[in-house]
Write a structure and sequence with these properties.
This protein is mainly alpha-helical. The protein has helices at 21-49, 61-67, 70-99, 104-123, 125-144, 150-173. The chain crosses the membrane at residues 21-50, 70-94, 106-132, 152-176.
Length: 178
């Protein structure tokens, strides 16, 4: 029987492979802002190329800002949605694909397509095209931070989504309506 010393019983926080929380938060902030810029670029390009008759239902944050109080909207956009959407949009499908042996590129592609399909159903073609970009980015972020473990990937992607949503919320409140 081998006896472990207290030095051997280190906590996960002492793991040199696990990035520090501040580093993950800054990464999430950067990826969230980059995703927001990508999505607005896709949105403007798509609106320019695609006639309004094909855009579909309006599901942007502007709709929600008229239906919810500001505190409820902030809770929904910054806390609830990122937690739920990362679980359903990245953790579940990407972990299943990982267990099936899918490549990183295929996983990002499938994650983006699934996310676009969900947004097509809820908001039409324009919403789906923009969601294709964000779905690819958030799938990339999840897989980029997956090596240390599911918790690191989930937390970084969730924070990235929250930062993206904050940036979109601010843009909508300043009149840049999706």
């Amino acid at each position: 029987m081998q006896v472990r010393s207290s030095h051997d019983l280190s906590s996960p926080d002492d793991d040199p492979a696990a990035p520090p929380v501040l580093q993950l938060a800054l990464a999430g902030l950067g990826w969230g802002l980059l995703t927001c810029m990508l999505c607005f670029a896709i949105l403007f390009l798509t609106k320019w190329l695609l006639p309004p008759a094909y855009w579909g239902a309006h599901t942007g944050l502007a709709k929600f800002k008229h239906e919810m109080s500001l505190p409820l909207l902030v809770f929904w956009v910054v806390i609830y949605s990122p937690i739920l959407e990362t679980f359903l949009g990245q953790l579940l499908p990407l972990e299943i694909l990982k267990r099936l042996g899918a490549s990183r590129q295929l996983s990002i592609f499938i994650g983006a397509i699934l996310w676009a399909i969900v947004h097509f159903i809820s908001g039409g073609l324009l919403h789906a095209i923009v969601a294709l970009g964000s779905g690819a980015m958030f799938s990339f972020v999840y897989l980029r931070y997956r090596a240390p473990g599911v918790a690191v990937a989930y937390a970084t992607t969730t924070f990235s989504r929250a930062c993206n949503n904050i940036a979109v919320l601010v843009a909508v409140f300043y009149g840049l309506d999706a």
